[in-house]
Amino acid sequence: MSMLSRVGQVRRCAATVSPVLGTVAARWKHSLPDLTYDYGALEPHINAEIMQLHHSKHHATYVNNLNVTEEKYQEALAKGDVTAQVSLQPALRFNGGGHINHTIFWTNLSPNGGGEPQGELAAAINRDFGSFQALKDKMSAATVAVQGSGWGWLGFDKESGKLRITACPNQDPLQGTTGLVPLLGIDVWEHAYYLQYKNVRPDYVKAIWNVINWENTCTLLTKRLDGNLISVAQILGKCD
Predict the structure, then answer these.
(1) Which residues are annotated as a binding site for Mn(2+)?
(2) For Mn(2+), which residues are the binding ones (predicted)?
(3) Which residues are annotated as a binding site?
(4) CATH, domain range 119-236
(5) What is the pLDDT along the chain (240 residues), one digit of tens a residue?
(6) Residue of 31, 102, 135, 205 with fewest CB within 10 Å of its CB?
């Protein structure tokens, strides 16, 4: 095959790949999930201004940046540009983690939340931590102790079948970082609390227990115990 023929073939392949990439990118674009409650519904524990900024600005930025980064990554894959693929990994981790973490976080909260969990979740907590109060104390301490920005998590260990408490820095996703399946997350980035609680993170962590949606957390655990592990795509909701 002559050089001109090869060039022509490459151009035809590129012309074929480009529309396909466009279709894939459009199909898998992530979107900001709607909340099932108003921004002011969690007051006085989390005020409306924080919720509005947190959801419509901060989370929306993670979603937008994730879509842009994934599009660039698809282009790098199509070109076989490994250097570009590697350079995009931090942005994928940060923005993808931010989207996953916040999508879980909103469902973990409810204006009808608080109190204590029931059923299988309560039994698992008593088994693995001794009591609900012991869980609260341990998770609060781990969350408050996060250096800088990050998350405190209650996760499910698929290997042992037990609940675990841990923390992740920045927007590192729990499952991708530790292997634990996320059940309950507490965001301790300053944008989650500073407008209301200033620099007193312990007060914010103490208050958030009043709006924890234990019904949601119990549902997540039940699905894990049934072996019906939810994929990241299901956590993020349907794509546009």
Answers:
(1) 54, 102, 187, 191
(2) 54, 102, 187, 191
(3) 54, 102, 187, 191
(4) 3.55.40.20
(5) 443 343 344 334 334 434 444 444 445 799 999 999 999 999 999 999 999 999 999 999 999 999 999 999 999 999 999 999 999 999 999 999 999 999 999 999 999 999 999 988 999 999 999 999 999 999 999 999 999 999 999 999 999 999 999 999 999 999 999 999 999 999 999 999 999 999 999 999 999 999 999 999 998 888 766 554 444 334 333 323
(6) 31
